[in-house]
Amino acid sequence: MARELKKILNQRIGLSAVIDEISFEEKFANGFLLGEILSKFGLQPDFAFFQDLQDEETKIRNFARIIAALEDVDMILPFPDVQKIMQACLHI
Predict the structure, then answer these.
(1) For a surface tag, which of 23, 35, 59, 78 has the fewest beta carbons within 10 Å of its beta carbon?
(2) What distance in Å separates the CA atoms of residue 88 and residue 4, rounded to the nearest whole number?
(3) What are the sequence ranges of the domains in the chain?
(4) What average pLDDT does range 17-32 have in this prediction?
(5) Tens digit of each residue's pLDDT (9 = 90 or more) over 66-91
(6) Contact 16, 27 (CB under 8 A)
(7) What 8-state DSSP symbol labels residue 88?
(8) Among residues 67, 65, 55, which one has the least CA distance to residue 30?
(9) How many helices (H) and strands (E) does the chain have?
(10) Which residues contact 69 (CB under 8 A, 6 or more apart)?
């Protein structure tokens, strides 16, 4: 399944970064690529304000925008889950 997901992300969606098994968690930890995916499907209209940086403030800003966009379509991303995603690259 992971192979198929990478194929979808890399070939069909065409993200700005190539996703592989080594960097998957790290590349999604700051929320930038999640925002990019939502943007490509018209769900993240403020994607221009996202930054692809790894500092804590950037991660919080990116995920705050993601949470708001998901709430607009009645989806909930609980903060404990956001924390797990943001910490993924640290393997905490």
Answers:
(1) 78
(2) 21
(3) 22-90
(4) 88
(5) 999 999 999 999 989 988 888 875 44
(6) no
(7) G
(8) 55
(9) 5, 0
(10) 35, 38, 43, 44, 45, 46
At residue 17, the pLDDT reads 93
What the block records as the tokens of 50 is 């996202």
Instruction: Give the pair of three-digit tokens for residue 33.
Output: 């690529």
Confirm if 60 and 79 have CB atoms less than 8 A apart: no
Pick the range with the lowest mean pLDDT from 21-30, 33-42, 59-68.
21-30
H/E element holding 33?
A: helix 32-40
Phi–psi pair at 14, nearest 5 degrees: 70, 60
Q: Angle at the Cα of 68 (from 81 to 66), degrees rounded to 5? A: 55
pTM over 0.85: yes
81 by DSSP, 3-state: which? helix
Query: 17 near 27, Cβ under 8 Å?
Result: yes
pLDDT digits (tens, 9 = 90+) for 43-65: 999 999 999 999 999 999 999 99
Backbone angles phi, psi at 6, to 5 degrees: -60, -40
